[in-house]
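in:
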């Protein structure tokens, strides 16, 4: 069996807002000349936080790592619904926000905890007949989507100052946090959309141990090697 190299494993990236997850993969591949690079769980362009980047033979573990539970923190704006369920979309409804307290918000949030069937948003990378839904959405086409089983372990608001609420949610893979924001707004009758999102954990990995993307791209190959979690250690955590 071929020995593992220092670049077979994974690095933890703190993704900035702006680039896609694939942009991060491309930047690292180009900067360090690594042929095989992948990521373990897409973050929307405006989302920040933990992105596990697998390198070399570490890419063999991407599916296992992608299946881990996730923890997110973010902000929801009440009173406005958008077609993408986040701040990138067009406003589809603007309604007065009812008088809400933090306790009332958390009472509503608690109703989301547990198993549920979630309808993916039209603006998503899920494919219909080989075409990503977001490409259809851009043409004004809406198609039927299959709801997916997800599980919410915890969903709690930590701050609320109308119209913005800060929250933390722990959930299974494949959960659309912007769909949760949209659905909560529908339940409250005023509409809502996600304004910020940050992934703070994925499985056993935490964003506190990640390095910002711009800092990673300034490393030498030798410095990068010291940051790489080796394949065997990664496999033990997968």
């Amino acid at each position: 069996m071929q020995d593992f190299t220092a670049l077979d494993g994974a690095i933890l990236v703190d993704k900035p807002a702006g680039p896609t997850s694939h942009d991060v993969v491309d930047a690292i591949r180009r900067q360090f000349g690594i042929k095989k690079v992948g990521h373990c769980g897409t973050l929307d362009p405006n989302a920040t936080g933990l992105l596990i980047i697998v390198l070399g033979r570490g890419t063999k573990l991407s599916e296992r790592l992608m299946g881990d539970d996730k923890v997110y923190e973010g902000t929801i704006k009440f009173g406005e619904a958008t077609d993408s369920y986040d701040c990138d979309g067009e406003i589809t409804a603007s309604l007065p926000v009812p008088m809400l307290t933090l306790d009332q918000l958390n009472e509503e949030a608690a109703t989301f905890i547990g198993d549920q069937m979630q309808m993916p948003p039209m603006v998503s990378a899920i494919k219909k007949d080989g075409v990503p839904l977001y490409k259809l959405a851009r043409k004004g086409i809406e198609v039927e989507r299959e709801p997916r089983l997800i599980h919410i372990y915890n969903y709690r608001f930590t701050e609320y100052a109308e119209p913005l609420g800060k929250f933390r949610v722990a959930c299974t893979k494949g959960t659309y946090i912007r769909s949760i924001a949209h659905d909560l707004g529908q339940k409250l009758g005023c509409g809502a959309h996600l304004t910020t999102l940050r992934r703070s954990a994925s499985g056993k990995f935490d964003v506190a141990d990640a390095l910002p993307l711009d800092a990673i791209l300034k490393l030498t190959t030798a410095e990068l090697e010291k940051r790489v979690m080796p394949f065997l250690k990664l496999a033990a955590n997968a």
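note: The longest strand covers residues 148-161.
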